[in-house]
Specification:
Distance between the termini: 32 Å
Strand content: 15-25%
Protein name: Amidohydrolase family protein
CATH architecture of the largest domain: Alpha-Beta Barrel
Shape: globular
Organism: Erythrobacter ani
Structural class: alpha/beta
Largest sheet: 9 strands, mixed
CATH topology of the largest domain: TIM Barrel
Pfam family, one: Amidohydro_3
């Protein structure tokens, strides 16, 4: 007898072929049967008539490193069809950690990934581990709604071995490099799925300093490549210098993109393992990404393993009165900031308060880290700011920007922004469309997604909790690219599914999942594709210590299975927790 049979659906199997009608049977956590009409008895039957059936999504760029301590659901991923996540990206994480040394790692994570430090202090089980293998053992003792894999973060490693010298980005000695290499080797033996580092000066700790590892010499990086060669496994994940622009205001990046590609090619050839790295379109050089992809293809043709990691939409920065906004450091606003939210809105509706805030100066936050100065990101950004209201237009035109609307109303950009934020009881959201929107459309994104060398990632699920909500990207790409796009060509649904499932699973050596084939894990989504929909943004105060985050729910997931266990039913959590730690 089968455990579950999914009847009458159209399979988008992750292998890239056209969807086809078939039933699918599950037994003991595995796909046991795929046939046009399964007649075997089953303990549970799912009616998938009119629905599509896909493998569970594999999200390779998340930051749940702290959240795994206090949350077994792991939203936003679990509610958006994701059944496997990889964390420990961008070189940041919480192991290894010296005794009583958590504050330095929290400063890095809060500064880079916008996860409230208070939540990390209170929510993480500090003291339960010191080394990375001990961290994996801790994770291995827990149960989740989906599977998790962890990478060794360079910043934590450098902090552990070098202390203040590591945090100050001083050059590593031979002894330092040997010690770090030994720890990475132990981590791979314990089951780490990869190693990660960041080389962009845009990634800064709360003190404003580039995170540990930013300026690491090539010799240091190559030590880790040698460890991976000996281990014979793992992915090297890297945020290269220049990937988000030259950042001249911060002093300029340490290397050119050409130099970074050459280094990544050395890593891949030395380690014999794949290298995946952030690739975005930025405004300073809007066509630079084309060179990166072309060079990656050229090097791969001669034996390298470079996987440019691309996003399915612009990297959007959200603003609202409840989160970050351009007026939050204005002198008059600061006098209101501790009032209950409804009173803040009521005060801001008063003409005299509006006039005062609009004419005020900014009061420095005293924080060097990016989030302490988040308001500056929205100052002067009106030409790239757009409403986020149902029905959300995810690919807006320039004439829909706040700047264009302000001009049409005879207002300044700041006046328009102020009135927008205060209206409707302060419940409105807007988005600053940054990277991947230099052409004011998504043509570059489509070309990146379709390129044969790329992988889909960069969702940052679990991070940027008050600024970016790209953790919903697996649902977004299905609806926008597979069904709803009007400003250009769509992307075949079978291509999107294959790239979000088998392509990512294969990259990380997870060959037991990622496609609907007999003998594979039963990580499966049943989706009402015609009605799949992203809802309104919500601000929830559900992090430890009362921390808040932005979430966006989905509607249309009839069922999600993780290793044959149903974790979601009609967009609701079933409470079942079959997810476990993946050890490479």
């Amino acid at each position: 007898m089968l455990d579950v049979v999914i009847k009458g659906g159209k399979l988008v199997d992750g292998l890239g072929g056209k969807p086809y009608a078939s039933d699918i049977g599950i037994k003991d956590g595995m796909i046991a049967e795929i046939a046009a009409n399964i007649t075997s008895a089953a303990q549970q039957s799912i009616d998938a008539s009119g629905a599509i059936v896909t493998p569970g999504y594999v999200d390779i760029h998340t930051h749940y490193d702290g959240q795994v301590c206090w949350d077994d659901t792991l939203d936003p991923s679990a509610s958006h069809g994701v059944t496997t996540v990889i964390m420990g990206n961008c070189g940041v994480g919480f192991a290894p950690v010296p005794p009583s040394g958590e504050s330095d790692l929290i400063s890095v994570m809060e500064g880079v990934e916008d996860i409230p430090g208070t939540a990390l202090y209170e929510g993480i089980d500090w003291g339960r581990w010191e080394t990375f293998p001990e961290y994996l053992d801790y994770l291995g003792s827990r149960e989740y709604a989906l599977d998790i894999g962890a990478q060794v973060p360079h910043a934590a490693l450098r902090n552990y071995v070098m202390g203040e010298r590591g945090r100050s980005n001083e050059p590593a000695t031979e002894e330092d490099m040997a010690a770090m290499a030994r720890l990475v080797e132990e981590s791979f033996e314990a089951g780490a799925v990869g190693f990660s580092t960041s080389r962009t000066i845009g990634h800064r700790a709360m003190d404003g300093q580039p995170i540990p590892g930013t300026y690491a010499a090539d010799d240091e990086i190559m030590h880790f490549a040698e460890v991976m060669r000996k281990a014979g496994k793992g992915v090297f994940e890297l945020i290269p210098a220049g990937c988000i622009g030259e950042l001249e205001a911060l002093g300029g990046e340490i290397n050119t993109p050409e130099q970074e590609i050459a280094l990544m090619d050395r890593i891949a050839r030395t380690s014999g393992q794949p290298v995946t790295f952030t690739t975005l379109q930025h405004r300073e050089e809007p066509d630079a990404w084309k060179t990166v992809l072309a060079k990656s293809a050229e090097l791969n043709a001669s034996g390298s393993q470079l996987y440019p990691q691309v996003a399915s939409r612009p990297i959007g920065l959200v603003t609202s009165l409840k989160t970050y906004h351009m007026f939050e450091r204005r002198e008059t606003f600061l006098k209101l900031a501790d009032l209950p939210f409804e009173q803040i809105v009521a005060e801001m509706e008063k003409p005299e308060v509006r006039s005062a805030i609009l004419s005020d100066r900014d009061i420095p936050s005293g924080q060097a880290g990016m989030m302490g100065n988040a308001h500056l990101m929205f100052t002067g950004a009106a030409p790239l700011l757009f409403e986020l209201e149902q029905p959300i237009n995810y690919e807006p035109k320039p004439e829909e920007s706040f700047s264009a609307q302000a001009q049409a109303k005879g207002q300044s950009d700041e006046e328009f922004m102020y009135d927008f934020l205060v209206s409707k009881g302060g419940s409105r959201f807007a988005i600053l469309l940054g990277s991947n929107f230099a052409d004011h459309d998504f043509s570059a994104i489509r070309d990146m997604l379709m390129h044969p060398e790329t992988v889909i990632g960069l969702s940052d699920a679990g991070a940027h909790v008050n600024l970016i909500f790209d953790g919903v990207a697996p649902t977004y790409q299905m609806t926008h690219w597979g069904r709803d796009r009007t400003r250009g060509d769509k992307i075949p649904i079978e291509f999107l599914v294959a790239k979000q499932t088998k392509r990512n699973a294969d990259l990380y050596g997870l060959c037991d999942r990622g496609s609907l084939e007999v003998g594979k894990r039963a990580d499966i989504n049943v989706i009402d594709f015609a009605n799949l929909h992203l809802g309104n943004l919500e601000v929830r105060d559900d992090l430890p210590a009362g921390g808040q985050r932005i979430l966006q729910p989905a509607r249309g997931y009839i069922a999600t299975f993780v290793k044959g266990v149903q974790t979601r039913s009609n967009d609701r959590d079933t409470g079942r927790r079959p997810g476990r730690l993946i050890r490479a």
